[in-house]
Design a protein that fits this description.
By secondary structure, this protein is mostly helical. It contains 9 helices and no strands.
């Protein structure tokens, strides 16, 4: 009897955690300053239940961000990145833009409570994918090599987040944002005229 009760309790706990994380992701994506009480209400659990799984706000925010990135990784990993790197980059930016736009406020909440190194670590898969694609474009001769690879990857990230901010401010339409991001990114990745002074690798 006790043996069967333990797996049941574990399953109940896992369902409770999933409900809390889902609620935190939804609430914080609307308001990065949302309180624990807001999450408790959205999840339909008690404060003691939430704190039993997440001892503080930072651990809850981290779990919400990790879940958003996990779902995003499923989307991005399905993108066809074969062939010409410039075309592949455009295909990757479209869903990347959507994911960034959806999670901007959640990321803001994370930046308030998590170390920058931890946030970079959580974004590791997406950063590695972009770096690999840019590196391939460099080998194909369609992307510049005169700037450090890590800088190029970070600039793509900055442009995506900048477009999300412009959209929130009403200065850029959501429908035109992906095209603007693609044009901007491809422009700064294009090799400069007159050769490339140094290797970005």
């Amino acid at each position: 009897m006790a043996t069967s009760a333990r797996p049941r309790r574990r399953a109940d706990a896992e369902r409770s955690i999933a409900r809390i994380v889902s609620a935190a992701r939804e609430v914080l994506s609307r308001d990065p300053d949302a309180s624990i009480d807001d999450v408790v209400k959205a999840a339909g659990v008690g404060r003691m239940t939430l704190y039993g799984h997440f001892p503080n706000r930072a651990s809850l925010v981290e779990a919400a961000l990790a879940e958003a990135l996990r779902v995003g990784e499923e989307v991005l990993s399905a993108v066809d990145l074969e062939g010409d790197a410039r075309a592949a980059l455009a295909r990757l930016i479209e869903p990347s833009w959507s994911l960034v736009a959806e999670s901007t406020k959640l990321l803001q909440a994370a930046e308030d409570v998590l170390p920058a190194a931890r946030i970079r670590e959580l974004h590791g898969d997406a950063a590695t994918r972009m770096a690999d694609l840019i590196r391939r474009g460099q080998r194909q001769g369609v992307f510049r090599t005169d700037l450090p690879l890590t800088w190029l990857v970070n600039v793509v990230h900055y442009v995506l987040n900048g477009a999300a901010e412009e959209t929130r401010a009403g200065r850029l339409g959501a429908a035109e944002a992906p095209g603007v991001v693609i044009a901007t990114v491809q422009s700064f990745l294009t090799p400069p005229a007159g050769g490339q002074a140094m290797s970005g690798n």
